[in-house]
Amino acid sequence: MISFLVAIHRACNLTFTRYGHLKRFFNDDWERVWKSHISEWQKAGIDVRAIKSFFANRDKISPEKEVSLLQKCGAQILFCDAPEYPLHLRQIHNPPVLLFCRGDLQADDFPSVSVVGSRKLSRYGQRAAELIVGQLADSGVTIISGLAFGADLVAHRIALEHGSRTIAVLGNGIDTIYPATNKSFAERFISEHRGAILSEYLPGTECRPENFPTRNRLVSGLSRATIILEAATKSGSLITAELAIQQNRDLFAVPGEIFSKNSEGCNHLISIGNAAPALSGESILQTLSFHNLASKKSAKRALPATQNENLVLNIFDDHNELHIDEVLRLANLPKTVASSVVSILEIKGLLKNLGNQTYVRTL
Q: Which pLDDT value is given to residue 303?
């Protein structure tokens, strides 16, 4: 099945909307989708652009070869309906149907925090990063960024230096590290099992400017909160900030001097109330209720849990407390199954009922 999904994605860019239409019409039979006729795609409600692209490219593409290319570069395929797919991404608008991963993506990587900012980070921005990202990493928070020059690379590096993990999201094919000068750094933390590289782009996809706003929705979408270290008024980091707001994520910005062009974007976000001032990692940990996250992750690893139990527990990464109805909605499991899982987690002491069927996570 996966090989046909990958091939369809290569042929026409399998967006979440297109995926939904095809899944319903063809009843999840992706080999049938691959071998279908134009009329069936039209009946399925697929847009004309995708139809033209798919049928123009299908004969040039081999599903087996597409999977082979991914295997060759060491990439795993994370399918949006699979349990290992990051839960946070399922909650955003237009999540990638297929996410490609090199390295070691762990359930413990979430909740996480993304850090972005200027590609020409000032000395002040670097000092702010050392303080804020360092304190977050010391507490066991996984740091997410885009592996670009400046703030991205600084954030990844600090996370690793403080013993935490890091995730890099690319705006190009999963087979290529961009910029190339960061390749050895990325390959090192992958080989040391200290993080992962993610991309929704297939091998061979070039790095184009229009890919980065699309990529940024994953940077913010994977995270519980986003921190802007430095940003000018027309910085690409402000796109990530806007996406974080749309995705209902917490947003923090490092305040800067009023005379600094590099801080104008951050100061503006704070002044209009869209971002909270990032004054320290400790204050962010307090706001997000992330204190002792490292010990909580360790305790969670020590407690055996089923796949469905982990799914429900992970929902609480983004919520301090939830009513049972919200748990059932977010878990996307049959009602009887989800209710049973919540009861078991309460018995195990992993969830606590505050009354009126409102639950909090204890670990």
A: 62
Angle at 196 between CA 149 and CA 239, to 5 degrees: 45
Q: Which residues of the chain have pLDDT under 50?
A: none
What pLDDT shows up at residue 198?
A: 98
Token digits of residue 176: 């290529």
pLDDT at 28: 95
pLDDT, residue 304, reads: 58
Do the beta carbons of residue 107 and residue 314 sit within 8 Å? yes
DSSP 143-210: EEE---TTHHHHHHHHHHHTT--EEEE-SS-TT--SSGGGHHHHHHHHHTTSEEEEESSPTT----TT
Give, in order, the Cα–Cα distances in Å from 205 to each of 69, 112, 142, 201: 12, 27, 27, 6
Which has the closest alpha carbon to 207: 183, 171, 238?
171
Supply the pTM of this predicted model.
Answer: 0.84
pLDDT of residue 312: 87
Strands (DSSP E) along 234-288, which ranges? 250-253, 276-277
CA nearest 358: which of 341, 344, 340, 346? 346
Which value, in Å, is the radius of gyration of the alpha carbons in the chain? 21
Measured distance CA(312)–CA(314) in Å, rounded: 5
Which residue type does 109 have?
Answer: D
Spatial CB neighbours of 8, under 8 Å, sequence gap ≥ 6: 14, 22, 30, 33, 34, 54
- 36's CB contacts (< 8 A; 6+ apart) are 26
With residue 78 as reference, give the H or E element that holds it.
strand 76-79
The tens digit of pLDDT for each residue in 97-107 reads: 999 999 989 88
Separation CA 221–CA 184 (nearest Å): 26
CB 116 within 8 A of CB 226: yes
